[in-house]
Specification:
The protein is of the alpha/beta class. It folds into 2 domains: 4-188 and 365-380, Rossmann fold (3-Layer(aba) Sandwich); 204-362, Glycogen Phosphorylase B (Rossmann fold), CATH 3.40.50. The chain is built from 15 helices and 14 strands. It has helices at residues 34-45, 80-96, 111-121, 137-140, 143-156, 168-178, 216-222, 239-248, 263-272, 285-288, 293-300, 311-319, 331-343, 345-361, 364-380; strands spanning 4-7, 21-25, 49-56, 69-74, 102-106, 124-129, 163-165, 183-184, 204-207, 230-233, 255-259, 275-278, 305-308, 323-326. Strand 13, helix 12 (311-319) and strand 14 form a beta-alpha-beta unit. Helix 1 packs across helix 15, helix 2 runs parallel beside helix 3 (111-121) and helix 11 (293-300) packs across helix 14 (345-361). The protein starts with a strand and ends in a 7-residue tail after the last helix. The relative contact order is 0.11. Mean pLDDT is 91; it is low at 1-17 and 383-387.
Length: 387
């Protein structure tokens, strides 16, 4: 086997000796996947033996020890159609040779090997749909790519009767398209002690994937009209274009690219930011129905944010106002709203105080109960896998 960087840590749970084994599969670099670290840690602490399988990149950092097993698979190609084909083939044979009670596909890009292995082994399978994969801008705006992924989705998802996603609108779409009833498990940050140290400067933060559809085409030019720096923490398929936009607008001193940061380092940067941004273009239902990790990360860092006025964010903000919602994503309007938030201390402090309340209501300690309940029902109440 060519898997690298395998980390094990024996779990002390009294259930460990009779634990069910759950494999979770991703195409991400495990070091940075905070969502899967949360999910796998919760399952491990509940007594399951959990193995998280991801990819090994040339740029990958050494893995940090976790209460679950981590496996990185080598792949000769790191992007494009050939990567997905080779990685899925590699993942299929890896899973085929492992013993497990359940295998969970995280998003559509690992669903085929999970489906085939679960059928061969006659074990339970789960679909963890972080988003409407085919409705992402980078997919839906490319007809041939969209057609290929949609075929995979239409073939696979109806065969995953058990699954969960991040909000009700996405669950409703899956039910409408494929007649599946998926549970709701939101991507909410873990409640931690918060660093209350004073902020040294008022910088605006974008954290997360630097991908198409995140409004960088208007956010970056907007910074010419905002008296603050924008720090961008992350990388993705739009990173080079974002850097080019920064250069074209002569914003090298105002738009700072920090790269991809390890989770602890990213939390430290987030806690020092003054404002966060959660912006998505309304191109594709995945953006319109999104619930980004960063939305809750900003709340937990107790920083107000500028956020798109889409249904899921609006519903949350109606419960506790933690963000300024914006409908128009042109550069002038983004700049106007950011400047208002910087200058209006009354509004800013109101939102910040609300973040302090909201983080106690919306946190992973509460949300993980739904995750644990899902797997308890899967193993205890459903005697057979889904087909």
């Amino acid at each position: 086997m060519n898997e690298t960087d395998i980390h094990n840590e024996k779990h002390s749970s009294p259930l460990a000796k009779k634990a069910r084994t759950v494999y979770c599969t991703v195409t991400t670099d495990l070091t940075y996947d905070q969502r899967m670290i949360r999910i796998c840690t919760s399952l491990a602490e509940a007594g399951y033996k959990v193995v998280l399988v991801g990819r090994n990149l040339r740029s990958s950092l050494p893995l940090t020890q976790q209460p679950f097993q981590q496996v990185r698979l080598n792949c000769l190609v790191e992007k494009g159609k050939l990567f997905y084909a080779l990685y899925n083939l590699r993942l299929f044979f890896f899973l085929l040779l492992k013993k497990m009670d359940c295998v969970c596909a995280i998003d559509l890009d690992t669903i085929l090997p999970v489906l085939f292995v679960s059928k061969i082994k006659r074990i339970k399978r789960v679909y963890d749909a972080h988003e409407l994969f085919c409705e992402m801008k980078e997919i839906v705006t490319r007809p041939s790519i969209y057609k290929a992924w949609k075929k995979i989705e239409a073939y696979s998802v109806p065969q995953f009767r058990l699954g969960y996603t991040v909000n009700q609108p996405i669950a409703a779409e899956f039910k409408k398209m494929y007649a599946v009833d998926y549970a709701i498990i939101r991507n909410i940050a873990l409640l931690r002690d918060h660093d209350q140290s004073l902020r040294s400067e008022k910088f605006i933060l974008y954290q997360g994937a630097v991908n198409e559809g995140r409004s960088f085409e208007t956010l970056i030019p907007a910074m010419k009209m905002v008296d603050a720096q924008l720090w961008i923490c992350g990388d993705g398929n739009f990173l080079e274009q974002a850097k080019q936009l920064t250069a074209e607008n002569e914003l090298g001193n105002k738009v700072i690219f920090k790269g991809k940061l390890a989770p602890a380092e990213l939390r430290a940067v987030t806690s020092q930011a003054y404002i966060g941004v959660t912006l998505f273009e309304n191109k594709g239902l995945s953006n319109y129905y999104s619930l980004a990790n960063r939305f809750f990360d900003y709340i937990h860092a107790e920083i107000p944010q500028l956020c798109v006025d889409y249904p899921v964010y609006r519903a949350i903000n109606d419960e506790i106002q933690v963000a300024v919602l914006v409908k128009e994503l042109d550069a002038e309007n983004i700049a106007r709203e950011l400047n208002n938030l910087i200058r209006n201390e009354v509004v800013y402090e109101h939102l910040r105080e609300n973040c302090k309340l909201a983080r106690k209501r919306w946190n992973w300690q509460q949300e993980e109960k739904s995750l644990i309940g899902f797997y308890e029902q899967l193993f205890n109440d459903r005697p057979a896998p889904n087909g």
